[in-house]
Amino acid sequence: MTQTTFQGATSDAAAPAAEINLIDLSRELARHWRRLVLLPIVVGALALGATYLMAPQFTARTSLLPPQGGSSGALSAALNSSLGSLAGLAGAGGAKGSGDMYVSLLQSQTVADKLLDRFKLQELYKTNFRFESRDMLKSKSRISFNKKDGLIVIEVDDANPQRAAEIANQYVDELRTMTASMSLTEAQRKRAFFEKQLERTKLRLTEAQSALQAAGFSQGALRAEPKAAAEEYARTKAELTSTEVRLNSMRSVLADRSPELAPLIAAANALRAQLRSLEQKTDVAQGPDYVSKYREFKYQEALFEQIGRQFEAARLEESLEDNSIQVVDKASVPEWKSKPKRASIAMAVALIAFILLAIHVAGRHMWRSTPLR
Questions:
Q1: CATH assignment at residue 140
Q2: How far apart are CA 310 and CA 88, in angstroms?
Q3: Which of 105-109, 165-169, 222-226, 241-245 has the lowest mean pLDDT?
Q4: Are residues 243 and 264 part of one domain?
Q5: What residues make up the domain containing 307?
Q6: Which residues contact 205 (CB under 8 A, 6 or more apart)?
Q7: Can you tell me which residues the record assigns to a coiled coil (predicted)?
Q8: Is 237 a member of any domain?
């Protein structure tokens, strides 16, 4: 009985507090309509006047098409299908050129420092330290990559419209200078890698050929080490070497337990087993010294042919690659200020003032309407 009475009293006391009479609240707001209208207008007018104390800012805009980073997908697939086990080796772990990468280059400290020096921005911004000038330049520059159309857009704000356009265009020039001195594309890395490998293999092939000639030709050696077996041994060893080189290259950027390495490790183990089997069939100790030299010569010859095909394919892919930075819209001198947007600022301040004043009037009405307990 006592518990029921207590719950009923609690419900009766909470009911007035929970009820909000919207009609009375509307009447209270209507009673103060002059204050709710005139005061926000006055505050908005003051905010509008304050915007005239702000220095106008002009925005220059340029857009560019970054390097596409390679030939078409069909052509790349055709090239890769013609490559052996070294396909993708030179580009293992490398990041292909993309719009996001070029945006990062444009936002780099190197580009910022060159712009600071060229336009004497540290003196203009009146900063004591260089990192403060970089932060100021970053706040006045907006660099974005639109994945839909593939364009990079650069926008620069400055009090001087001429300087705004010059800084925006200088961003593009600095990007050109930086990309010209860096190997950024996959095809360039492939070509440089295979060029070095080709020179090394050519030297080893020459040495193997000289050693073979010094050993002399022997028909008995050929019978002990048939030509077909020697060529099979050479191809298998060349395949194993290229697989191991690719595996070591990928291990520099991937962990040993990565799923990408599993097929390569399995392929290397299978080639080693096949190579051991061939060595047992053609034991060098059972034949003259000519056998081992002939087998080494065939191995270097097969490896040289593989790397030669890779090098030619990489050269072709590089020749078809578009590494140029194409400016779509060059930044021109802006004719009208972009900041401050005086009308928008005045309206926003007036709206905020109205909302705060309405909350104040409604809160005071509710506080006065709440009965004392």
A1: 3.30.1890
A2: 10
A3: 222-226
A4: yes
A5: 186-319
A6: 297, 300, 301, 303, 304
A7: 184-211
A8: yes
Burial class (CB in 10 A: 0-12, 13-18, 19+), 211: middle
Q: Is residue 363's pLDDT more than 60?
A: yes
Which is more confident, 223 or 34? 34
276 in a structural domain: yes
User: Would you say residue 373 lies in a domain?
Assistant: no
pLDDT in tens, 273-289: 887 777 665 554 444 56
Residues 193 and 303 in one domain: yes
CA distance 366 to 26: 12
338 burial class (0-12, 13-18, 19+ CB within 10 angstroms)? middle
pLDDT on residue 10: 46
Highest mean pLDDT of the ranges 71-80, 160-169, 172-181: 160-169
pLDDT at 63: 94
Q: Describe the strand order of the beta sheet including 141-146 as a list of residue ranges.
A: 141-146, 151-158, 58-65, 326-329
Residue carrying structure tokens 């790397």: 307
Kindly state whether residues 105 and 122 are assigned to the same domain.
yes
Q: What is the pLDDT of residue 158?
A: 92
Q: How many domains would you assign to the chain?
A: 3
Residues 180 and 192 grouped into a single domain: no
46 and 110 housed in the same domain: no
Residue 20 lies in a domain: no
Which residues does residue 44 pair with via DSSP β-bridges, in sequence order?
Answer: none
Strand partners, 60: 156
Query: What's the average model confidence in pLDDT over 205-221?
Result: 69
What's the CA gap between 351 and 41, in Å, rounded? 9
Q: Is 326 helix (H, G, I), strand (E, B) or coil?
A: strand
Task: Let me know whether 107 and 217 are in one domain.
Answer: no
The residue type of 61 is R
At 71 the pLDDT is 45
Is residue 125 within 8 Å of residue 132, measured between CB atoms?
yes
